[in-house]
Target: SDR family NAD(P)-dependent oxidoreductase
Amino acid sequence: MELTNKVALVAGAASGLGRAVCADLAKAGAMVAVMDRDEPGVRAVAEALPRGLAVPADITDATAVEEAVERVCAEFGAVHINVNTAGVVDAAKVVSKGKPASLEEFQRVVDINLCGTFNVMRVAIAAMLRNEPENGERGVVINTSSGAAFEGQPGQAAYSASKAGLIGLALPVAREVAGKGIRINTIAPGLFDTPMSASLPKAVRDGLTAEIPEPRRLGRPEEFADLVHSIIGNGYLNAECIRLDAAVRMSYR
Model:
């Protein structure tokens, strides 16, 4: 799919990977709807784009997302691309000091990372189905999983489960919309230089970086955005999960 004059809805766009995706797609000529629950952040990102639209919304709120996508369609006329990067990380062992983990906290992480992503993509796909096909394509959805979906660390039960769920989501949805010109793909990034990783103590960041084979550094958000761009442009790529992690495979310690 060509990006010029296409409409992209990016969720989790106020910072980090999502913000980089917004900038890259806008540079390529797309109109970009910036979605995040961080309203000041959403507005700042949208205002920095040539054709940006701020649509603040909580991705776990069905009505808020439906209203946001309606606004995007009213302002820009369509949704052709949906990139979902919103997510939270949590650390909690199943049992710690004899006490079981909080079920509410597990549910919160899954609700945001997995259910929230599904919430956005279900509404975005409904909008894409109204598009006239261009070279057989109506839309592209790209979700963000994680290397933790494959090699989860102790304390990452909720995070790993939610991110593994996103990988499992792609194929059945791709099959549901088969023949309608919509592709569903997933990126599983490794360790990236984002506000989330920046909040870690320096010793922890250095230890994680030391496990990365090549190049031995954290990924740059622009590199994630570049892969998003490539997936959009490759019309034969569907129901795939691509690891973007410099070959890191986290140990269990």
Notes: Strands lie at 7-11, 31-35, 52-54, 81-84, 95-96, 99-100, 139-144, 182-189, 241-244. Helices lie at 16-27, 39-47, 62-76, 103-128, 157-176, 195-198, 202-210, 221-233.
